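Backbone-to-sequence.
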């Protein structure tokens, strides 16, 4: 869709939801929105999708690749945990359709007939217009008049005075960098922080949690209900989740791991085996991995995935199948700069940097940091003695563990 195109949400209901490979996983049942500060259109946070097993899940708009009259196409991994609405969220179809509202400048009462949303940036959606039906007397049988107005003309889509302060904080946090969200959480009193944590989107909270001092991470995750805490840990980078879980009491850690999706829990458990200040303890088990018969065009498409950090996207690791860690035989790594200089049809196995040695998982952080400095890296492979790729260390994790233990706390205090 182009950014100027709007789509009415009633037309989304019942549309097939299809993965990028073409397989249908379910149907659209609703759209989740969040009201923001005055003058800013409510944000569409995601879709409620009903799976074939009748379970309803949440799919973030960041996963929505395209929307047309026939289907909704999503990309990436989705969380199949049952959908639960947060306090700051509103369901459009179940919560707003047929609801009586007030229209700006009109003394009459209206009901919401339909609501449209538009894509303002890639995979970012906002409400646009509202179709209102005029409320008629019961004896008046003629079809009610429907008019289209801007979202800002409808009272329920503007912050209510009593909750505006809380809603304003949430709206502002949604547009902040994770480190800035962490600073805001750090500065809040415990009661307010608990309310904000409860209302924040899981992915946003997970990113912010990674930026908080360790003791505050533990405090926030320990105060949550187990199911929500497990959801947040699933959203975190596996290495950060492992660092946090390692600091919890053994019983609490095991409870959280048991509630996580098996695949996510497995990644974390593998990382917990390694000492914290080693390549194995620093690595992420989810680097960019491709088979030797992949071509440059395939690799460039892979590193464009929005969820990848710049450091992870900087290197493609070439391995024999299986392509999930621990992989088949590790063949080498290819720099993104090399990919950008070669024809799209070139096999990536022809572009491997033969001078680049991988790290063993037990390499101490001093060896890891010298390896990064020697080869001018932002991303380095970690390979076991049988030449299986276990993961990759990124430069941000090296810096994180080389700085003083309390550096995040000092940063929060502006030191």
């Amino acid at each position: 869709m182009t950014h100027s195109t709007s789509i009415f949400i009633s037309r989304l209901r019942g549309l097939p939801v299809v993965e990028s490979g073409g397989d249908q996983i379910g149907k659209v049942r609703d759209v989740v929105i969040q009201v923001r500060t005055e003058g800013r259109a409510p944000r569409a946070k995601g879709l409620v999708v009903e799976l074939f097993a009748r379970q309803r899940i949440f799919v973030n708009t960041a996963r929505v690749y395209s929307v047309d009259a026939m289907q909704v196409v999503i990309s990436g991994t989705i969380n199949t945990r049952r959908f639960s609405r947060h306090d700051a969220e509103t369901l459009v179809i179940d919560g707003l359709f047929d609801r009586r509202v007030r229209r700006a400048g009109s003394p009459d009462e209206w009901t919401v007939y339909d609501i449209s949303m538009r894509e303002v940036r890639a995979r970012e959606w906002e409400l646009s217009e509202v179709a209102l039906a005029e409320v008629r007397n019961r004896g008046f049988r003629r079809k009610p008049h429907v008019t289209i107005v801007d979202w800002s003309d409808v009272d329920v889509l503007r912050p209510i005075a009593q909750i505006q302060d809380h809603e304003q904080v949430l709206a502002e946090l949604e547009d902040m960098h994770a480190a800035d969200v962490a600073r805001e959480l750090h500065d809040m009193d415990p009661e307010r922080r608990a309310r904000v944590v409860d209302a924040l989107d899981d992915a946003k909270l997970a990113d912010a949690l990674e930026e908080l001092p360790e003791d505050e991470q533990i405090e926030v995750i320990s105060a949550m209900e187990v199911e929500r805490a497990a959801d947040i840990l699933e959203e975190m980078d596996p290495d950060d989740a492992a660092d946090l879980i390692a600091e919890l009491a053994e019983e609490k850690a095991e409870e959280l791991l048991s509630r996580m999706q098996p695949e996510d829990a497995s990644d974390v458990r593998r990382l917990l085996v390694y000492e914290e200040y080693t390549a194995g303890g620093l690595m992420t088990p989810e680097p960019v991995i491709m088979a030797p018969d992949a071509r440059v065009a395939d690799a460039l498409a892979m590193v464009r995935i929005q969820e990848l950090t710049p450091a992870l996207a900087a290197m493609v690791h070439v391995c024999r199948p299986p392509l999930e860690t621990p992989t088949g035989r590790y063949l080498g790594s290819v720099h993104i700069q090399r990919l950008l200089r070669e024809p799209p049809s070139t096999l990536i196995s022809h572009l491997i940097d033969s001078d680049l040695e991988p790290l063993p998982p037990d390499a101490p952080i001093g060896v890891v940091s010298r390896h990064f400095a020697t080869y001018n890296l932002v991303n380095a492979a970690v390979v076991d003695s049988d030449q299986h790729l276990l993961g990759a260390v990124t430069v941000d994790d090296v810096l994180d563990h080389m700085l003083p233990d309390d550096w995040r706390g000092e940063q929060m205090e502006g030191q």
